[in-house]
Amino acid sequence: MPTPAHLAARNNADWCDLFCRASGVATRFERDRWLALRRSPPLHPDAVTLAEHPRDVLAGLDVTPGCSVKDSFAALDLAPAGFRTLFEAEWIHRPPAAPAGAPPACRRVRTPAELAGWAAAHGGSFPPVLLRDPSVVVVGVYDGDRLTGGAIGNRSARCAGVSNLFGDVWDEAVAAISACFPGLPLVGYETPEVLPAARAAGFATAGELRVWLVPGGDPHAP
Q1: Which one of 45, 80, 138, 210 has the lowest number of neighbouring Cβ atoms within 10 Å?
Q2: Which strands make up the sheet holding 160-166, listed edge to edge?
Q3: What average pLDDT does the segment 196-206 reach?
Q4: What is the pLDDT, as a whole number, of residue 217?
């Protein structure tokens, strides 16, 4: 049975895979890692480990400046290969919640125009083709007509992920994503300064992760 950390790592790799393919980047899953076959879009890793000690995590990667690897179990030492630690974080996990509807303040983003407004508030860029994927939900939290925050949910085989959360809307966004994927545990990851908000929303930590970067280029890691 996979641990919560393994579930979260696989879900994160699933999201990276969706985002890269939606951005025109070919990808591949292997037994112990996921990888992009060319440089990933900004703020996304070039590889995600799916096991503590993958056989050769750097094989096939462009390890020039800007290359990044998500070490899902904080188990690797990539410094000898020219990487440095970009940041460390914790996987988070929340058991399935009792069935409930999405909060009234939450609405799904369904059109490219709505996504453009959501992305502007978030500060990132998201391919509209993601809206057509049934495993993805983009949630906005509103005060009347004003967008106050949001998050993205993505479904994997055994869990659903919460990512790209912005605004002080943890409870609302998490409830909306849970309502979209009933019966599934929720996973994600957060840096130490955000963990208190995640815990307040019902998440527990599930293990450390580390993102490695080859310095000298634009960071390509979330």
Answers
A1: 80
A2: 27-29, 33-36, 47-49, 68-71, 204-213, 84-94, 186-190, 160-166, 146-155, 136-143, 106-108
A3: 96
A4: 61
